Amino acid sequence: MSPISQETQESADVNAAIDAELQLLDPAVRTSRPLAARLLDPEFVEVGASGRRWTYEEMLAALPELDGGGGEGDAGGPRFKPSGMRGVVLAPGIVHLTYETVFGGRRARRSSLWRRRDGETEWRMYYHQATPVPDGG
């Protein structure tokens, strides 16, 4: 059995982080604390588009009611529309994703750091930041 090339491993890591990011944008995941908790690192921090800083516990408590959660458990509600998602491996076990979303006519540029700790198989979001894009930007 031949070892996986570094390029192949990095591509697999980026794809795994993209898949996990897309799961977090899904209203069915956003309204489920157990599903969201599986995707967020216990040391998770977010700086939202509003400028508010969120911790792991704050995010899990608020996520079902935030934009894209569908509100009141309605997984058929509005969704974030991501585009241009790209990723790069910064170091073994660390992937940086960048992309844009549109939600309710508002655009935001987004940046996420995904981490896979030694001995773990799952990727978890360690850090996320959203920056609003002004009209015409």
Task: Tell me what you see in this structure.
A 6-stranded mixed sheet has the order 2-1-6-5-4-3. The mean pLDDT is 89. A hairpin with a 2-residue loop joins strand 4 and strand 5. It contains 4 helices and 6 strands. The protein has 137 residues and is α+β, with helices and mostly antiparallel strands.
List keywords for this structure.
single chain, 137 residues, alpha+beta, six-stranded mixed beta sheet, 4 helices, 6 strands
List the helices and strands and how they pair.
Blueprint: H1 6-25, H2 27-30, H3 33-39, E1 40-47, E2 53-55, H4 56-62, E3 81-91, E4 94-103, E5 106-115, E6 124-132
Parallel strand pairs: 1-6
Antiparallel strand pairs: 1-2, 3-4, 4-5, 5-6
